[in-house]
Specification:
Length: 537
């Protein structure tokens, strides 16, 4: 149905509350008939405005509201939702329907007389021109306002529901909510213990999406080679696709200092970035607590685990770990960016936008499925990322699993892993210098030299099952053979590398779609999607 919404109803029924929800949720544009009258008579009180409205109704047969609207809209009728707050006569409504057939939707609000009397007395003093609601309803168009219910497309009782529920009912009639379960979301996760090279993959494919979303916290960094940047909290495709909307989900854990740094570095505004109000804030005390207790499990000690624990424990009156729970909505510096990301996702679904959800860390660091206690504080699989983001599984189109040719773990006592080897062994096998490997294998956040191990086929098979992988991105192909650095297409890879890729596809039952080699600006991604399309696969 139409995108010009006429609102009617008696004084104190709650018209403004519904209009405010339309504006907040859908960016609707409001035309206030009261403001239109004030423009004609700026000093007029309610009695004078009522008189002016009646005069305009009589002289134009009620058409003046439509004429004022058309003058403001100036042809922009297709791209916006317009709210007329409020229409007061049958003639006013009829003019809209005749001039804009198929575009008009009329919502009439009602409430029991006792409720209206009570609400009227609760209005601000400047809006109580009469001693009671019963006196107010005797004046002007208010006397016949209830007659408009008979011609409304939708009649809503504001006594039974609050403004958000009223919006849900009205907006659903206008088809403003996404109804189809179109699969618009791709999830990108790490297959191993993190540092698989997720950032470069995200940056490479970011252009294919209109929305980029991230969960997790500052205990994981994603390094992008071009444009060069270390993304700690924001999506790694932020610079690769400057037109994409950016979301940080409710399950994220935020360092205020780090988020603000990335916002400044990347010149972001609230028009582009949305931070969910329920994302939890890391306090200095959280970091101090982890500094003293988590070295034994190789933690990056950024306070993520303690902040998450406080969010869980802090639902009552007691304060845990010396800090009350603070969420993104409580941070003044975030005010421009804070909005419900579930609503932003629904807007994206309605537009048919493609969404890339970027996970952090790796599958074997999962709090539930990793080698406890050498795990992180969250669920790192695709399903966990979806839960943190507030995305339904039915929205998922694909799961991209990023895996390294030689998995790593954070340096130090970071827990069990596959057969551990040293950098010299990889250098000898591949022809990549040990110095280059040593320079690459340093944690983006921890700064520690990484541990490295042989590829574990069972581990990657299990990860593919846990994540429901539909595509694999294989990184560090140069660690198989340094000559792969020169490859710009699949055919140019060495025979040994191709055998590895074929084996990986057999073991996981999943296509290897992207392949990277090296790091830095030379880490060109081999994208096999186009060749598969040509071959009919």
């Amino acid at each position: 149905m139409g995108n010009v919404v006429l609102i009617s109803g008696p004084i104190s029924v709650g018209k403004s509350a519904l209009v405010n929800e339309f504006e907040r949720r859908f960016g609707a544009r409001r035309i206030s008939t009261r403001q239109l009258l004030l423009q004609r008579n700026p000093e007029g009180d309610r009695e004078a405005l009522i008189k002016l409205g009646l005069e305009l109704d009589e002289s134009t047969s009620g058409r003046w509201v439509l004429d004022e609207f058309l003058d403001v809209a100036r042809g922009d009728l297709e791209g916006s939702i317009w709210l007329i707050d409020a229409v007061r006569t049958l003639d006013q409504i009829q003019h809209f329907r005749q001039q804009l057939p198929g575009k008009v939707f009329h919502v009439h609000l009602t409430a029991p007389i006792g409720v209206l009397r009570k609400r009227y007395l609760e209005r601000p003093a400047e809006l109580q021109e009469f001693s009671s609601y019963d006196d107010a309803r005797l004046h002007g168009t208010e006397r016949n306002i209830d007659d408009l219910a008979s011609v409304a497309d939708c009649v809503l009782d504001t006594h039974k529901n609050d403004a958000t529920s009223l919006l849900a009912r009205a907006a659903s009639r206008l088809n403003l909510f996404p109804k189809t379960k179109e699969r618009l979301v791709d999830v990108l996760v790490g297959a191993q213990f993190g540092s698989e090279g997720k950032g470069n993959i995200c940056a490479h494919i970011a252009k294919d999406y209109q929305v980029l979303m991230r969960v997790g916290g500052p205990n994981a960094g994603h390094k992008v080679s071009f444009p060069k940047y270390d993304y700690i909290q924001l999506p790694s495709g932020t610079q690769s696709n400057p037109d994409a909307k950016l979301l940080i989900g409710a399950g994220a854990t935020l360092s205020v200092k780090q988020v603000l740094k990335e916002i400044r570095d990347l010149s972001l505004t609230g028009d582009r970035l949305s931070i969910d109000p329920q994302a939890v804030i890391i306090e200095d005390a959280d970091i101090e607590t982890e500094m003293g207790s988590l070295e034994a499990i190789g933690s990056t000690k950024k306070g993520v685990g303690v902040a998450t624990a406080r969010k869980i424990l802090g639902r009552g009156d007691k304060v845990y770990f010396d800090s009350p729970v603070r969420l993104a909505k409580h941070v003044p510096e975030f005010k421009e960016f804070v909005r419900c990301t579930k609503i932003e996702l629904e807007k994206a679904y309605l537009r048919g936008d493609r969404i890339l959800l970027e996970g952090t860390q790796g599958t074997d660091l999962s709090i539930h499925h990793g080698h406890y206690p050498w795990v992180t504080s969250r669920e790192t699989t695709a399903s966990g990322c979806l839960a943190d983001a507030g995305i339904a599984p039915a929205r998922v189109r694909g799961v991209i699993m990023v895996t390294r040719t030689y998995p790593i773990r954070v340096g130090g006592e970071s827990g069990p892993m596959m057969k551990e080897i040293d950098f010299a062994t990889i250098a000898e096998r591949s022809g990549v210098s040990e110095a280059e490997i040593r320079g690459t294998e340093v944690g983006t956040v921890s700064g520690k030299k990484r541990r490295i191990g042989e590829f574990d086929w069972e581990q990657v098979r299990r990860s593919a099952v846990l994540n429901g992988a539909t595509d694999i991105a294989l990184t560090f192909a140069d660690y198989i053979d340094a000559s792969n650095k020169c490859a710009t297409e699949y055919a140019m890879l060495t025979a040994e590398t191709k055998k590895f890729v074929e084996e990986l596809e057999r073991v996981t039952g999943t296509n290897v779609t992207w392949i990277t080699k090296g790091f830095g600006e030379s880490a060109i991604v081999i994208d096999r999607r186009e060749s598969r399309t040509k071959n009919g696969n």
